Amino acid sequence: MTVLLAMTDRLNKVLLYILAGLLALVSVAVMAQVTVRFVLTTVGINISAPWTEELARYALIWMVFLGAGYGMRHTRLISMEFGIQSLPRRFGVPLRYAVLLLIIAFSALLLKAGLDFVALGRSETSPVLGITKDWVYWAMPVGAALLILNTFAHIADTVIAKRDIRLGADHSPQD
What we know:
The protein has one domain. Residues 171-175 have low confidence and may be disordered. The longest helix has 41 residues, at 2-42. It is an all-alpha fold and 175 residues long. It is built from six helices and no strands. It has helices at residues 2-42, 50-73, 81-86, 89-121, 134-137, 139-161. Helix 1 packs antiparallel against helix 2 (50-73) and helix 2 runs parallel beside helix 6. Helices cover 75% and strands 0% of the residues. The chain crosses the membrane at residues 56-72, 93-115, 135-156. One of its GO terms (biological process) is C4-dicarboxylate transport. One of its GO terms (molecular function) is transmembrane transporter activity. Belongs to the TRAP transporter small permease family. The complex comprises the extracytoplasmic solute receptor protein and the two transmembrane proteins.
């Protein structure tokens, strides 16, 4: 089990670099769009760069889905922590496991729906970049699979370390 956790953590380290790259790509694309749309037009240069908006949108979609999967491993997703942590252990622990199982179930539905979207996207092409939309739609099943993997890894890591699962992950990328 610890080998699988180590492999998951290595995958997440790679994922962190991908997320950083996507964030940089979104930032550059949005800055290019602002520069072209507002800065250059004020000096009389009227050019269009519609690809920047589409590129930023698609990179942001990937960043959201991959980031959700990554955030689950380190319990960095938005949640109502104070409610579960304030409950007595005998109520809080089963509630946390129930929530994690609901996350896995929802992610499985998201995975299935994402694969259906991928199939639909093969026949669609993005208007500006000219890529098939299945490349964009793959973000949903990939992110859902990462959510499932990292939820199981979080549960396993907590059980192996004998930590109170109500308190979330004991380790994080900053440690």
